[in-house]
Specification:
6-stranded antiparallel sheet, binds methionine sulfoxide, about 150 residues, single chain, 6 strands, alpha+beta
């Protein structure tokens, strides 16, 4: 399945069952893209990112203060962060020793961060422009969905 086809599949799944939008997105991303080893969504509550639905090994980081981790940095900078080698990034909070690279995409409406999509890969430098081009529109869909609550 191409990334474009996967985006359409996620869009349709969210339309079909808006109440399960976050779960559908993480499950489809993890199922269709094998190098996405861990896929999760954090939601911003006050000044903490709280782990919501995820696929992969349980993470010790279920609540991340905005000032910490690559997750905290992406929410603070309001921008996607790609890390090719997590072990070389002093911001990195380890979730699994197998993880080599990570992408964090903020879920934003206007200038407000509502949460983020966090994806880890066991392969180094797993994330590039194609992943960004898939995940930023998925984050926009989720932002619309969260605004409806
Ligand atoms: N690696 C993240 C923490 C979350 S775990 O990867 C699931 C970070 O550095 O913020």
């Amino acid at each position: 399945m191409t990334h474009d086809e996967l985006f359409i599949k996620i869009e349709r799944a969210i339309e079909r069952d808006p109440a399960r939008a976050l779960e559908e997105a993480v499950q489809l991303l993890a199922a269709e893209i094998p190098i996405y080893t861990w896929v999760g969504i954090y939601l911003l509550e006050g000044d903490e990112l709280v782990l919501g639905p995820f696929v992969g090994k349980p993470s010790p980081h279920t609540r991340i203060p905005l000032g910490r981790g690559i997750c905290g940095a992406a929410a603070t900078e309001k921008a996607t962060i790609v890390v090719d080698d997590v072990n070389a990034d002093p911001r990195y909070l380890a979730c699994s020793i197998e993880t080599k690279s990570e992408i964090v995409v903020p879920i934003m409406r206007g200038n407000d961060v509502h949460g983020e999509i966090d994806i880890d890969s066991d392969q180094p430098a797993a994330f590039g422009a194609r992943d960004r081009a898939l995940l930023e529109p998925v984050a926009a869909l989720l932002a619309e969905r969260l605004a409806e609550d």
